[in-house]
């Protein structure tokens, strides 16, 4: 009661005190704080029961007022007093001791407001950045403390100041010698240790002061030079007797103390309070984006950021029982992606490699290579989601190397399993479980594994489709282009007479006349892409095979695809709005997007000259195209959803503006070498099989039309139709041929328009 009365009396006296000049007022409030430690006998009372918070707030207001009254950049006497008397050092000592209880919180608030409200740069001053660095070490030491909110606010304001002036980060890259000394560790260090520390030290550009190697265990002499000697003795004794209890540190291991700001933020990312964790992540985002090379090197080599950025295997195993954990994981990966995207180049590369080694290889790969059907399905779905989510170029590169490997030489049949994960994923696209063939007599078991196989296939195909849309040249080169580089799928000879008879005057009987198609000129010139040489004509001109004009050639190519499916097997013309023209707009938009992605890859404008190609080398289309072609060859016998996904991936590949891809996938007249196949030749074989099979199906055309209308939702579901798989396959085949024709036409139009 007496203490409370004394406190109230002091407040009343102070409220009646006359107005003083700013400097005198500032000194008055500071001395009022120091007198508390001299006069008080009760160091257990909380700081909120004292006048300390009020005095600190008044000091801040005075500093802000002083700055506002002076010209920009000019330091006033109050700020000079704060710097010269090392007030921040003293406050750090009091905050570390947390005396009176709650003082640490008040010190953090003072530091935060000082850095946030004062416009002139304070951190370059040694009497500011040194105590700031010391206070940073106190943050995140213990999780879920009452000061967590103030700690993260303080750390974030420091990060914001460093973002404004990145060079200041060098003041916060301590060498380990200083850190050990400031913790009171005896400096008994061998010569070998000193040599080892040299490699960890970072030149901060600061002048070294002897006092920097001593810890702040009491108030400096200059802080109280105006105090009477007997009061200085009392205050020194009071500070010496403060109980600075060592609290247990957070569970994060600190291998070095070179970059304490990062370490403290990392500790707070594990706070049980989600808001604190998010703010800590935001602070790290600011730090990794700083352009200072020394900071980037210290961040990746002398902190726990890289290993802690990835989940441990145990955490993953216990954190995936349900939806909440999945959302947590995806949020974490999104943060990693954004962190690496914003990071300085050196730091970004190091962090991405850490994700590759510790998460992709350490966690994901065992999951993807396991034998459990459900486990593989789950991990493949997760990989698909990661592929879709990643936006950082550096992390994308590491993810691509993880999935596909780094190989760029042409594939051979004997070495398709050279990168096991790539081989496994591509095989999933053509997956038929061994268990399905084991005993088809057990219908339930058969159905279960058939469903798993179907899901494997579709999920992995979708993953590859999204991978092909990523802005990374290695993806397409590794999967396709490396095998087409030498054009050894071609045979350099003129067309045989049988092939010439197929086309009469460049047109096929019953083909669409593009000159009369209003969509031929529907795409405005301003929406077209720059002129390209590689689509002007096909096949190459020879004495026996003269080059026709480009328009004739595109007629031939477009109509070759449109006329692949015989009229007896077509059903789109019976349904309004399902013509070939419906694909033109989508093809134009998609082709424009792909050209924008591929522009920086500097692809050639025309195919590699045949005389420079190694046509004698054995041709292998590669594992990826082999599986897609095999799937395409079974389009009449596999589920509708699989057919949609296979044709979707092939159409994506056809859109790429590379001359070899265009020739191999979209040129019906390429002279294939013996034993080679192209997309067109695969479809021709399917059509040949179709012509034989439809002869054995009664009422084929009405059934085909009914199936189409059901798929479009124009007819309600009814009794099961026999040969449903084949009928759905025919519909997909017809639509795919129209889509390929539209892609070929859009490519021609884009290349021929000035």
From TrEMBL:
Against InterPro entries, the record matches this protein to: FHIP (IPR019384), FHIP_C (IPR045669), FHIP_KELAA_motif (IPR045668)
Q: Name all FHF complex subunit HOOK-interacting protein C-terminal domain ranges.
A: 621-713
- Write out the biased-composition intervals (Polar residues): 196-208, 525-539
Q: Where is this region: Disordered?
A: 195-235, 525-550
Pfam families noted in UniProt: DUF5917, KELAA, RAI16-like
The similarity comment for this entry is: Belongs to the FHIP family.
Protein name according to UniProt: FHF complex subunit HOOK interacting protein 2A
- From what organism does this protein derive? Macaca nemestrina
Gene symbol of the encoding locus: FHIP2A
């Amino acid at each position: 009661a007496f203490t409370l009365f004394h406190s109230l009396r002091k407040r009343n006296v102070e409220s009646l005190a006359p107005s003083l000049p700013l400097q005198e007022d500032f000194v008055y409030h500071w001395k009022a704080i120091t007198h508390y430690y001299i006069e008080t006998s009760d160091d257990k009372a909380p700081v909120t029961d004292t006048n300390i918070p009020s005095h600190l707030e008044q000091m801040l207001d005075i500093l802000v007022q002083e700055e506002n009254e002076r010209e920009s950049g000019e330091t006033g006497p109050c700020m000079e007093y704060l710097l010269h008397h090392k007030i921040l050092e003293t406050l750090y000592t009091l905050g570390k001791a947390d005396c009176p209880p709650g003082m640490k919180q008040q010190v953090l608030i003072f530091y935060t407001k000082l850095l946030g409200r004062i416009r002139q740069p304070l951190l370059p001053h040694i009497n500011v950045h040194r105590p700031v660095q010391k206070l940073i070490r106190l943050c995140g030491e213990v999780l879920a403390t009452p000061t967590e909110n103030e700690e993260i606010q303080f750390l974030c304001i420091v990060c914001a100041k460093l973002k404004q002036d990145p060079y200041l980060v060098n003041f916060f890259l301590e060498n380990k010698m200083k850190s050990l000394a400031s913790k009171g560790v005896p400096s008994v260090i061998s010569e070998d240790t000193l040599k080892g520390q040299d490699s960890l030290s970072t030149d901060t550009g600061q002048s070294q002061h002897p006092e920097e190697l001593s810890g702040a265990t009491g108030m400096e002499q200059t802080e109280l030079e105006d105090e009477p000697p007997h009061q200085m003795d009392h205050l020194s004794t009071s500070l010496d007797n403060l109980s600075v209890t060592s609290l247990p540190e957070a569970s994060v291991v600190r291998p070095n103390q070179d970059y304490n700001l990062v370490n403290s933020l990392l500790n707070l990312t594990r706070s049980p309070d989600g808001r604190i964790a998010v703010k800590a992540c935001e602070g790290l985002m600011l730090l990794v984006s700083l352009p200072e090379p020394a900071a980037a090197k210290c961040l990746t080599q002398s902190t726990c950021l890289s290993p802690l950025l990835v989940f441990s295997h145990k955490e993953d195993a216990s954190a995936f029982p349900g939806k909440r954990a999945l959302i947590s994981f995806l949020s974490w990966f999104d943060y990693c992606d954004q962190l690496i995207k914003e990071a300085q180049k050196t730091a970004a590369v190091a962090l991405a490699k850490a994700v590759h080694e510790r998460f992709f290889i350490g966690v994901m790969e065992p999951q993807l290579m396991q034998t459990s059907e459900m486990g593989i399905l789950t991990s493949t779905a997760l990989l698909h989601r990661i592929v879709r989510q990643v936006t950082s170029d550096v992390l994308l590169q590491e993810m691509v190397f993880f999935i596909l490997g780094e190989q760029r030489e042409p594939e051979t049949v004997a070495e398709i399993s050279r990168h096991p994960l790539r081989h496994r994923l591509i095989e999933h696209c053509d997956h038929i479980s061994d268990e399905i063939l084991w005993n088809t007599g057990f219908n339930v078991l058969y159905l279960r594994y058939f469903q798993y196989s179907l899901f494997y296939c579709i999920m992995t195909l979708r993953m590859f489709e999204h991978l092909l849309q990523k802005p990374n040249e290695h993806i397409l080169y590794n999967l396709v282009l490396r095998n087409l580089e030498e054009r050894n799928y071609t045979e350099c000879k003129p067309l045989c007479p049988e092939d010439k008879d197929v086309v009469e005057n460049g047109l096929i009987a019953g083909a669409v006349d593009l000159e009369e198609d209003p969509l031929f000129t529907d795409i405005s010139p301003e929406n077209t892409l720059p002129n390209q040489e590689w689509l002007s004509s096909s096949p190459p001109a020879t004495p026996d095979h003269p080059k026709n004009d480009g328009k004739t050639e595109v007629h031939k190519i477009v109509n070759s695809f449109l006329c692949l499916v015989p009229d007896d097997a077509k059903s789109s013309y019976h349904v309004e709005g399902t013509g070939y023209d419906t694909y033109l707009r989508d093809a134009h938009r998609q082709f424009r997007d792909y050209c924008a992605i591929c522009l920086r890859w500097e692809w050639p404008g025309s195919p590699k000259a045949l005389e420079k190609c190694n046509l004698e080398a054995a041709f292998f289309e590669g594992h990826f195209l082999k599986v897609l072609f095999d799937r395409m060859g079974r389009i009449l016998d596999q589920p509708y959803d699989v057919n949609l996904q296979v044709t979707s991936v092939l159409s994506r590949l056809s859109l790429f503006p590379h001359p070899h891809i265009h020739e191999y996938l979209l040129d019906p007249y390429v002279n294939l070498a013996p034993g080679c196949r192209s997309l067109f030749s695969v479809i021709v074989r399917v059509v040949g099989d179709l012509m034989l099979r439809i002869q054995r199906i009664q009422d084929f055309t009405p059934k085909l039309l009914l199936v189409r209308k059901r798929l479009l939702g124009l007819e309600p579901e009814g009794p099961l139709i026999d040969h449903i798989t084949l009928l759905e396959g025919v519909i997909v085949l017809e639509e795919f041929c129209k889509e390929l024709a539209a892609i070929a036409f859009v490519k021609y139009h884009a290349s021929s328009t000035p």
